User: Fold Magnesium transporter MgtE from Pedobacter aquae.
Amino acid sequence: MQSFEIDKTDVLKLKQALEGDEEELVKLLGEYHASEIAILFSKIPLESQKRIINLLPAETASEVLSEMDFEAHPEELLLELDPERRQEIVEELDYDDATDIIAQLDEEDQQEILQDLDTEDASNIRNLLSYKEDSAGGLMNTQLIKIYANMSKKQAIDEIIQQSEEIEEFYTVYVVDESDTLKGIISLKNLIKAKASVKVADLINEDFIYVKAQVDQEEVADLISQYNLTSIPVVDDHLKLLGRVTFDDVIDVLEEENTEDMLKISGVSEDEELSGNWQAAVKSRLPWLVINLVTAFLASSVIRYFEPTITHILILPAYMTIIAGMGGNAATQALAVTVRRITLSDLSDNQAYRTVIKEFTVGLVNGAIIGLIVFMAALFYDSNPLLGLVIFIAMAGNLMIAGLAGSSIPLVLKRVGIDPAIASSIIITTFTDVFGFLLLLGLASKLLL
Amino acid sequence: MQSFEIDKTDVLKLKQALEGDEEELVKLLGEYHASEIAILFSKIPLESQKRIINLLPAETASEVLSEMDFEAHPEELLLELDPERRQEIVEELDYDDATDIIAQLDEEDQQEILQDLDTEDASNIRNLLSYKEDSAGGLMNTQLIKIYANMSKKQAIDEIIQQSEEIEEFYTVYVVDESDTLKGIISLKNLIKAKASVKVADLINEDFIYVKAQVDQEEVADLISQYNLTSIPVVDDHLKLLGRVTFDDVIDVLEEENTEDMLKISGVSEDEELSGNWQAAVKSRLPWLVINLVTAFLASSVIRYFEPTITHILILPAYMTIIAGMGGNAATQALAVTVRRITLSDLSDNQAYRTVIKEFTVGLVNGAIIGLIVFMAALFYDSNPLLGLVIFIAMAGNLMIAGLAGSSIPLVLKRVGIDPAIASSIIITTFTDVFGFLLLLGLASKLLL
Assistant:
């Protein structure tokens, strides 16, 4: 199949087919990969989703559900289905995908779905539901291939072939002992290459990476990314093998964490759904705006304090907005670079120190250049060199503070264990507003009155 | 091996070992995975890196180089090495990794390295160097496993085992014809499970995803992520198999694209190196600040225009900063949510329309609530209900514009084919500054004079 993206034409075709007869619709659906149907589902109402899911083979239907974006609410679709159909589809789902979907429902609905499943499936999913959603345990799949170290090559291959009936994809074979303690990993390639007389024990790689179930998903993602792993085994405190997290889960985690960072740094709650309704957005953003309002009153009180100065130099407000605006933007620049750097790698004390010095210097240099331009504008518009000088100093000083605050605040937050992205532009710009006004108005009242 | 992260202790231990004798150093290095040494390299000077690389086995040394962050400049280290050692290491590198590193050097240094390699390696790397760095061709590795459709199961497995000597990891086997045209893919699992009498042709999966070499890396990443692929074949216009991109390259691409987005939205050039020096940062950020300065003058000229109004109502500047500040932050919120949503999935016209309506509503509601708080503050501080009313209207209006601009500008940019993240907070806050001042000062001059 040629690679392509779902576009408007696909959505239109599907909507037309939904109006037409069943046969046409089934034919059209046959042209799409499950993950493409999942994308189309984000563009059509729940009723149509339900109709399509009921037309698809159970295996495809389960893939569609597992590929649906969380914001498209696969759990609502699942709940809508007739109990028998639902059971059929859940049984086709990997345990981790089933758990992720069911976890979105409230307790009562969860029980309703679980009671229809066979005992083994239900207990596996109940077990996964007990892990925190953003931990290795919450991310892992319990379906994997495991063999014993004392098996011969032939026994191992037969066992792998048999176990792989139930598992669509596997990348690594895990070697365990009788109590399921993880002993090592082995690659299918090496097993096949080995002579017939070889035992599993001879091929084991004991130098492998694993995580405990309670580890945060961000760390799991870092490990998979750092060591280029297709999957990572998840164990309990006694090294008992519980499951595995695969690279595709991690790609989703990375996108999720990146979304959270971008929202936080912009003063939006990290759990705001991008496609949520306006009520949810108000609830997510209003608290940050109120915090900002408090800090804005702080900046405003600086202006109130200098009201007599403004009375005498009425041109000052026109420059105040320039200095505050430039300071805010320079601070946002320093903040974005520093936060992103902290996210991608831990900084040593020395690197952190050099980062702050660098941002301080950048702020000072940019501030001096921008300040010079504004100095000349002040000469041109207001023919007042002393006013120009005051503005120059205020601009350079404010951008210097912008660099200092934009880099040191996230670094300090990281040191004390707070997510540095919380040092959003909202917090940082307070510093530049207050300091910019203080500097401009303070200097003006000394030098220009 | 237990999973762990490189921390200060590791860096200290390494630095101590670098002072001590060689034997100690080699022993310490043996405790680390290549990707961990790569992280340590970002904390030590080039001279120490060179010494360590020369102590490591060539295979490990090549892994360290390929795992080094681009900002740690592996190409400089490579250039520092003695030609013989360098040749040895480059030969151990995968072609795509070697190309990525060499591509960072200037033409002359590239030639110096390539001329020492054997003809096949050099021509493979030269070929890869000809693709754009951020295309599928620039990302792909030419080392892969390929077999013919007319092979028997036994022939195929023998061929795979032989080819896999040169390839550390493979996830999918590609089936080609005599002219290397890609016919389909086959999984090792299915091949092993098949009966001995089966031919490769019987097992081929012809319904697979591929990309052309010129496709942008972001699209390659989307496909791998959407279809949960471990690797994707790269072909030319005649479907000739050129190479494959693996999931681990894509994880790096995603991190890179996310960094670029976060920088752009904050008004920093997307190619600023996070750990670059201050001169580079000034060069990257000053142009954006100058753009911002122009827009700030625009806002400033609104204030100049209303100078007579300010003369009569001297408290206005104290409120101007609150209204402009709140507008800027509300716009940044709307912008972050919208840009992130566009990045993660294409929006239909209808979805785009509803997004703008939603952000408009959020702005209006948040603006009314915040406006009410400021109205009460105006009553309390300045005992002026009419002033309070003007401020209320200006705040609600400005946050409404913030929602409108923050959502519609990136959506329009996307429609006309410009990266929506370029609608950075710098551009957006101009709208809120200018409109906020116009509304506040215009209303004040009508109602309060």
Q: What stands out?
A: The mean pLDDT of chain A is 89. The beta strands of chain A are 146-148, 173-176, 182-186, 211-212, 231-235, 241-246. Chain A touches chain B through 126 residues (CB under 8 Å). The radius of gyration of chain A is 30 Å.
